[in-house]
Amino acid sequence: MGSGAPAIVTGGAGFIGSTLADALVADGREVHVIDDLSTGHLRNVPSEAFLHEVDIRDGAAMADIAERAGAPVIFHLAAQADVRKAIADPAFDADVNIAGTLAILEASRVNNARVVFAATGGGSYGEYPGLAIPTPENAEPRPMSHYGQSKLAGEGYCGLYGRLYGIATTRLRLGNVYGPRQDPHGEAGVVAIFSGRIIDGEPVTVFGDGLQTRDYVYVDDVVDAFLRAESGPDDLTANIGTGREVSVLDLARILGAPDPTFAPARTGELQRSCLDASRAAEVLGWTAAVAVDDGLPRTLEAIREARSA
Predict the structure, then answer these.
(1) Is residue 111 one of the residues assigned to a domain?
(2) Is residue 2, in this structure, part of any structural domain at all?
(3) Which of 17, 23, 61, 295 lies deepest, with the highest CB count within 10 Å?
(4) 161 in catalytic set
């Protein structure tokens, strides 16, 4: 695998997936993007990529694309990623994140393709007394949301397909990914939402006391992790984060937001989440290169430029 080999990217019209597709195209790869465009945008898809506008739950379509592409790797990033939507409609969340992942794993059997799965860090580990911060991969997962539970189930099925069929899988448990191309009006993270409010001259809203922390990791660093995972060891679970806790109030300050307004805390939201990424450093040679003090202003300006384009 590696340079020259075709690749499939599910969710390739989304924020992270399209950034990964760009990197693969830049490396001269033939890239097949699978996205139903329900939350992704056509403008994000590289013009050189082949777009398959289809739902990942369509197993027959997934197998057909895998056969025609002949790709030895599937980067699986398509997901229902909105925690609030997952709480409101857990059946839909499970259908996309579990049934959709099963369809991708079944398709991987066509070419015995490696699957690099976008898992969730904080969403899987949850929060409970005694949980180490930063959290290593050997911590007991105790999800606090339907989204975290469905993504953890996807990890379990990846392991199952390795044991039953010999499919090589890598599960990357991502921190809070941010960066250019994040949509402030879509299923966005707090960085994109805050950036949009700042650009519009409106106050940002903080839910809870604002002291809750997250591990914010820049999208280019995440893409680097996916590319490294393609040639990494089989049956690997690795955290992808910075190991640095950043509070929501610190986030607003670094972005230059004026005094925020406050609203009640939201159900299922964690107070602290931070990932120990030492396994990724040891096994994949990966470490985060972009600090939030650099990445946040870069993201704000990219969103501002996209608005004015």
Answers:
(1) yes
(2) no
(3) 17
(4) no
